Amino acid sequence: MPGFFATNIAQPSYKITNTYPEKSVFNCLQYQGINMQRNVLNSFLGDKLFVENETHLLVTDGLIINSEQIKLKFGTDNLAQAVLKLLSEKEKIFDELGHLVSGAVYEKQKKCWTVFTNPTGDRAIFYYYNPTTKFYIFGSQLNYITDLMEEANIARIPDQHGLNCLLDYGCFLDDSTGIRDIKRLYPGDYLQINQDGLFVGNYYNAEIESQERTLEEDIERLDTAFLNSLKRLIDKNEEYGLKLIADISGGLDSRIICYALKRLECNNTALLSYGQSTSIEIEIARKIAMDLNMDWYFKSIDNGKIVKQIDQILPLNSGTAFYFGITGGKDFLEILDHRICGLELTGLLGDIYENAMVVEDGTQLPNAEYERFRPSKLLSIDPEYSYSTEIKRFKTNELFWFYTRGMLAGMSPFLIRQNFIEPVTPFGDPEFLKTFFSIPWQKRVKERVLTNWFIKKYPEAARFPYAATGVSVIKENSLWSKLYSRFYYKKNRLIESMGKPYPNTMNPFDYWLERDPSLLRFMDDYFEQNIVSVMALPQLTQRLKELYYSSPDYIGKGIALTVLGYYKNFIKV
Q1: Helices (H), strands (E): how many in the chain?
Q2: CA 140, CA 425: separation in Å to the nearest integer?
Q3: What digits encode the pLDDT tens for the residues 209-266?
Q4: Strand blocks (E) in 336-421
């Protein structure tokens, strides 16, 4: 993802680089040994600040969702001036700028940096700090840190904890990366760097504050919070006069956004889908787009070339999760014109169908060895390495995995998307999250509150089949629907056994490998060429070999390749 960077390491020739510099705006300034740079996507620039005055350095990336209110408060049309005035009143401003922005503020008099990510952490911040030399580097992309470390001859030591988490879960479980001295700011955290050292604090945590209400009251509150969230995004997009982009698939989370856009009369919208052309998900998306009478653009990914894009994807997502999560999204987004296309709305964090990210034991104490969210379960978890340093933050298993699976893993494609467009999810708005978590977990699961909200408020969307079951959520409890769902599942498995792509899969990886042997040859070659680089870590080497050679499907092999690709692109020792 594009973004910003600062360091006090004297490397005057160092310049941060993005994968797509032609889509970005670059700026740099020097102040008393500090090198501050930004390389942000060339869109929504009125919300992206890079300024210096007598008292502060300030840089932000993302969207200051309440920029008009801030300007109004300080009686100016200049957002930078308004935020600088806000800084003169408050030392910590990160909770004043909305939930879609990251940034860094340097207070010249105190010689202190305050650096913050956003509440959901998708505006990523990585940082390096040496307590002995007091050298620091922080930035929005992992390569901003690793490239400067390489230039300054600072060793990048593999972090076996982080790399094993990536191998076991396909993502990192805490603030670790795959490099020992580099951390990632956890969602809702900030760090301060001054002459005394480095301090990490927290300014936002989603909290469970259960309130007893009727089902009808819960539905009304959810709907109000959701529409408020979506309206804020629409208004921000309209400030810039851009076309709104919305992803649409066969699931519920994305379609509720599209029908809510219709309710709010947001007509300047285009819908996007990508996947295997024979997928039922794509057919449902097409029918929904026709029903909405919105422009719909579809990209086929039948060639399966995502399998080969290890070294293209990992630098874009800073290695935060397995490389194959976005499938055809990168290729689709890179052809969009960001001078025309504005925000991209996704259904991430929605979880409407299940109503809770953890359905078995959500109210129990957090459990980092929860099997459900392991992409491949072939390996046994190694507790010496695979654990979470952040698990103590959370009171329940649901909250822990909402952050881990939902934000750290699920939202990792946002880091890729931010190279082309500004992705957002209305489900990540603090108002919506507060409303969602005010509904007791047992009630959300047993009474299926979100599904009932979906059916009551968006009946047009609910009448289309849910791709996973083949029936609409309105009828799913009938005897006929239950019988049909069983038939639907067996029929699709029969089709798959005949050498065709599984009809309910947008991304039939194993079918792609079977159809095109060159993909598997590429994977084998990539593994053999790169496994030698981790031989100094025998425990990791053994686990990688076991996973890759024993995995009966693509997913396990893809996870192993992700770890090797991470090593190749960021550690390089």
Answers
A1: 20, 17
A2: 20
A3: 889 999 999 999 999 999 999 999 999 999 999 999 999 998 899 999 999 999 999 9
A4: 341-345
